[in-house]
Amino acid sequence: MLVSADRDRFVEIDPDKVSRGSFYTTDGAWLNAPVRAFLSQAFFTNTSALDPFAGDGHLLDLVRREFGVATFGLDIAGDKWARNDSLVSIPNASSSVIVTNPPYLANHSAKRKGVDGLVATYFDGSDYDNLYKIALDKCLAAADFVVAVIPETFLLSSFDKSRLALVSVIEGDLFADTEAPAVVACFGPDGLQQLGEFKLGNASVYNGDALIGSLHEIFELRTGRARSGIQIVFNDPNGRIGLRAVDSHDGVRRIEFIYGDFEYKRTRIKVSSRLLTYLDVPELSDAQIQELVVRANAHLEILRAKSSDLILAPFKGNDKKGNRRRRLDYALARQIINANLNA
Ligand SMILES: C[S@@+](CC[C@H](N)C(=O)[O-])C[C@H]1O[C@@H](n2cnc3c(N)ncnc32)[C@H](O)[C@@H]1O
């Protein structure tokens, strides 16, 4: 057993479980109406399913029951499936539809948890910073259709989304033993622009069963009018604007711009503060700053509503009320301030 000191909390770690990302998808919530529609389309031409990271086989069991297709599994551990290192390559002679929940492990957390020796060969020479991206890359190389349960941070990542047809955010707890916020990402064949109702490269984004919009529409919300020439100073101990950049665990204090002091002590600010801070727009008067704070908060709430929160990164699972906590990155915070300087 390893022990990891993560923000002063000591957590026992099973190195094999962590390095293989063995957190099983015991809940069937991932197979919701939009994902089901996509899989029905995929099984028109390919009548079998493969999970190259099959674990206990929960995903395959559900797919076999619901679609009546043949299923195959591969795994690096256990004796239930043929052995294969699917982070290196995935054999798929029968062109099966891949349905999987690959291992998740960020390069930096592998180091922190002391398991980097077990996974270093995968990261060496790779541009990817998380095992699930390496896994997804191998899946996309091996199959025309891939349905993968992966971390929600995929949406904000630079991973190539040209084959992505559909994403559904799963808000409940999908896993038996971890709270990792997840999405189901559905990919179609390379070079295809339209697949039935699905547009590849401009995926439809759902929250569970509810359509939120297209990927482009949602992420365009992040690119607003920039007003250059006006200085905005972050992490300023004397800043007149407080910024709580994360939703609190209590579910009451949301991300907010605040005029003046809030629960964060100014003496604690560092250049690296990313969650709670103070900032300033030196050329504005106090009255203008107060107006700016009101407009910026209203703007933020509109962005949250229009994107169902997806333009904000998930932050550490759910709050006490069961809603997914979010973090506002400073690039977007700066853009919101900019857009409201003289609105
Ligand atoms: C997150 S679990 C998913 C299991 C299954 N898909 C599910 O959702 O129930 C990941 C699985 O991938 C396997 N695995 C980890 N690294 C692997 C590798 N390099 N090649 C093949 N399987 C691997 C682990 O043993 C584990 O069973």
Automatic annotation (TrEMBL):
Gene3D superfamilies with a match to the protein in the record: Vaccinia Virus protein VP39 (3.40.50.150)
What the entry lists under InterPro entries is as follows: DNA_methylase_N6_adenine_CS (IPR002052), SAM-dependent_MTases_sf (IPR029063)
SUPFAM superfamilies reported in the protein's UniProt record: S-adenosyl-L-methionine-dependent methyltransferases (SSF53335)
What's a single GO MF annotation on this record?
nucleic acid binding
Single Gene Ontology BP annotation: methylation
Q: What is this protein called?
A: Uncharacterized protein
Tell me the organism: Rhodoluna lacicola
- Highest classification ranks of the organism: Bacteria, Bacillati, Actinomycetota, Actinomycetes, Micrococcales
